[in-house]
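Reviewer comment 2.1 asked that we show a complete input and output for one of the modelled complexes. We chose the S-adenosylmethionine case, as it is the one discussed in the main text.
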Amino acid sequence: MTYGHTPVLLAEAITYLGVKEKRDGVWVDATLGLGGHSEAILKELNPEGRLISLDRDAESLALAKERLSGYKNFMAIKTEFSGIASALAQIGITQVDGVLYDYGVSSLHFDRAERGFSFAQEAPLDMRMDRESTLTAYDIVNSYRKEDLERVILKYGEDYKFRKIAYAIIKNRPIKTTTQLAEIIRKARSGGKPEKIHPATRVFQGIRIEVNAELKEIEESLGAAFKILKLGGRITAITFHSLEDRIVKRFFNYEATDCVCENKRMPCNCQHKAGLKVLTRKPVEAGEEEVRSNPRARSAKLRAAEKIGEAVVEK
Ligand SMILES: C[S@@+](CC[C@H](N)C(=O)[O-])C[C@H]1O[C@@H](n2cnc3c(N)ncnc32)[C@H](O)[C@@H]1O
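Response of the prediction step:
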């Protein structure tokens, strides 16, 4: 069976996690997806090593479980990755050697039209990674107030025509399908400079981020992962747009700083001690060959950090 998602920066992720140096370690893939990165980790482990992989999408979990069913030291858990610590505690794990994140959606989400992530085919407005969660793209498009729609389009979609687009959406309610929405956005944005991407791409990204609370999830999970890392353990994160990358970069830099006092001229009273060492001063990006064979890799950025201390004393 082939799995329709090509993992990005695969070799780099394994190297920065340091799996080959701790083949008997306890590893977490917080974004299992279709299991590409997980499989590569499992191939490096010896029988004492363990991999626990998380995903909130039941469909991905089922496919990945089937793919990796031959590995006895593998376990998959359905959870949001912000719940990483409690999910692991439930199976008796309180410390880990490394956590991998490969954020965003997988090819499965786009390929399954009925999931409503893509405007390439007509489908209901959904976009939930976890189909048991309640908020859908339909709710946002058809019931958000103007100010909230504008916020989603600008803040998460980074589309500066947010006012025109929000106005057009409200005027055309009810909007039922992905293609209907894409057409309304296209018309609202018409007249500007031609762009390389489809005019609805950014708005769809913004709605998806809102539906899945993606940025809040990333922030909360990084903090939780840092706490359960062993000394010398690593976090490796692959991001696909600047909103994700900024959160990872800021988190790493903050935790890698001894003093986080706002006024550096005053004697330090924050008592913050660096708990991480950043391993990637600049993010690692895919080479030309990888981008050619997997266009998704074009925007990928990998950052990694190693735990060097426990002390995190907030002001
Ligand atoms: C880019 S895909 C991962 C692909 C995977 N590395 C592979 O090689 O197949 C991201 C996966 O993370 C999951 N995901 C995204 N945000 C999540 C969250 N907050 N909690 C749990 N899973 C999440 C998605 O459902 C998706 O399956």
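The first strand starts at residue 26 and ends at 29. We note this here for comparison with the apo prediction described in Section 3.2.
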